[in-house]
Every structure is written in C-alpha cells, then in structure tokens.
Amino acid sequence: MTEVKAKLSNLRISPRKVRLVADLVRGKKALKAVEVLSLLNKKSSDPVKKLIESAIANAKNNFSLNEKGLII
Fold it and tell me: pLDDT tens digits for 15-48?
C-alpha cells in the first residue's frame, strides 16, 4: 500500500481546534472528507480541505493512484 503525504506549515490556528476538524474526517474516503469539510462551519476546515485536495492531486499526478480509493 502506497502512502501519500501532504504537509501544512505555518497555520496560525491552535492544534486543538484543528484536531476537532481532523477527527471528523479521519478514516473517511478522501472525496467524502472534502465534501464534509465544505459544509463545516469552522475556521480550520478551509485549510484542512485545501490540504486534502493537495494530497489527492499528489496521489493522482505523482503516484498514478485512483482518487476514489484514497482514505484519510
């Protein structure tokens, strides 16, 4: 199983607040996680959504993986 990583640096939101959002999408399929984050009304949901979209793009372009099979 290939592991694709994406990293978010210099986010000026406390880790505790970001962890609330990350726990909501952990273990879900990547496309479903993006869908959930687009409806969430938290400040940290936009950077996390952008990070997941970046990881999906990295998986497609660099590793030739199918985006429907990706899991957070």
Answer: 999 999 999 999 999 999 999 999 999 999 999 9
Residue 6, Cα to own-chain centre: how many angstroms? 8
Q: Are 59 and 65 in contact (CB under 8 A)?
A: yes
CB 4 within 8 A of CB 51: no
- Alpha helix segments (H runs only) across 1-72: 15-25, 30-39, 45-63
Give yes or no for residue 62 having a pLDDT over 80: yes
**Residue 44 zone, left/alpha/beta (φ > 0; ψ -120 to 50; rest):** alpha
In sequence order, the β-bridge partners of residue 29 are: 71
Question: The whole model's pTM is what?
Answer: 0.92
